[in-house]
Amino acid sequence: MPSFLLDPGTVAFVGAGPGDPGLLTLHALRALQMADVVIHDRLASDDILAHTRPAATRISVGKEGFGPSVPQTRANALLVAHARAGARVVRLKGGDPAIFARLDEEIAALDAAGIAWQIVPGITAASAAAARLGQGLTQRGRNAGVRLVTGHDAKGFADQDWRALAAPGAIAAIYMGKRAARFIQGRLMMHGAAPTTPVTLVENASRADERVLPATLATLPEAAAGLDGPAILMLGLAPRAARATAKEALA
């Protein structure tokens, strides 16, 4: 594999992973060490940002669901302006830059300005959360696919194929879902999901302050109300230890 290069006047969209700097890829680390300007979102942890060059300029363009956010047009303008000035620019995004991260909007702005770009994939929160649970995102005989969905979009709570998500054995990672927990619960149960369906909430996945809250569809809103940090809802998955304990109780 060729070594990573970031040329002056270009932009690299870099996945920061879920937060643990040990989960950065080698290309991501190299990009951070080469960047003159790092434009990062709210989910890029301080431990990740510590790997930037001391002389690099850091600019936050964080967004928070139903909260204060830097307009997307502002983020686009910053990318274009700094690249046009000849800087090596890293657009640092939590997780993987291609998953719920407005990647295409920013690429479109760069294309319109004639600025070259590249993408450095990262580990997404669903993978980190599943690893913490000791569960596979897919399992032979249970589910042949997994859905990555968002709890809300630019218009509010996001609609999904609820019938498919409510099917027995369905597995889904729901990003940005904690404030939509009651909406998600209602839609799933309306389409036939059992109240006992496991839903595990993983807050700050992979970080030092990570929390894992096992719940069911029936208790999901109450569990989500206790979360402060970024969280992912793992529909259909319980921590492996909890599942083993439940089986022993039934034996």
Topology overview:
Blueprint: E1 11-15, H1 26-34, E2 37-40, H2 46-49, E3 57-60, H3 72-84, E4 89-93, H4 103-113, E5 117-120, H5 125-133, E6 147-150, E7 152-153, E8 156-157, H6 162-165, E9 172-175, H7 181-190, E10 198-203, E11 211-216, H8 220-225, E12 231-235, H9 240-250
Parallel strand pairs: 1-4, 1-5, 2-3, 2-4, 6-9
Antiparallel strand pairs: 7-8, 9-12, 10-11, 10-12
Helix pairs in contact: 3-4
Keywords: Methyltransferase, Porphyrin biosynthesis, S-adenosyl-L-methionine, Transferase
GO molecular function: uroporphyrin-III C-methyltransferase activity
Pathway: Porphyrin-containing compound metabolism; siroheme biosynthesis; precorrin-2 from uroporphyrinogen III: step 1/1
Essential attributes:
about 250 residues; alpha/beta; Cobalt-precorrin-4 Transmethylase, domain 1; Methyltransferase, Cobalt-precorrin-4 Transmethylase, Domain 2; 2 domains; 12 strands; about 30% helix; elongated; disordered C terminus
Describe this entry's structure for a reader.
Keywords: Methyltransferase, Porphyrin biosynthesis, S-adenosyl-L-methionine, Transferase. This protein has 251 residues and is α/β, with parallel strands linked by helices. It has helices spanning 26-34, 46-49, 72-84, 103-113, 125-133, 162-165, 181-190, 220-225, 240-250, and strands at residues 11-15, 37-40, 57-60, 89-93, 117-120, 147-150, 152-153, 156-157, 172-175, 198-203, 211-216, 231-235. The chain is built from nine helices and twelve strands. The protein has a five-stranded parallel beta sheet with strand order 3-2-4-1-5, sandwiched between helices. Strand 7 (152-153) and strand 8 (156-157) form a beta hairpin. Helix 3 packs across helix 4 (103-113). The N and C termini lie far apart (51 Å). Residues 243-251 have low confidence and may be disordered.
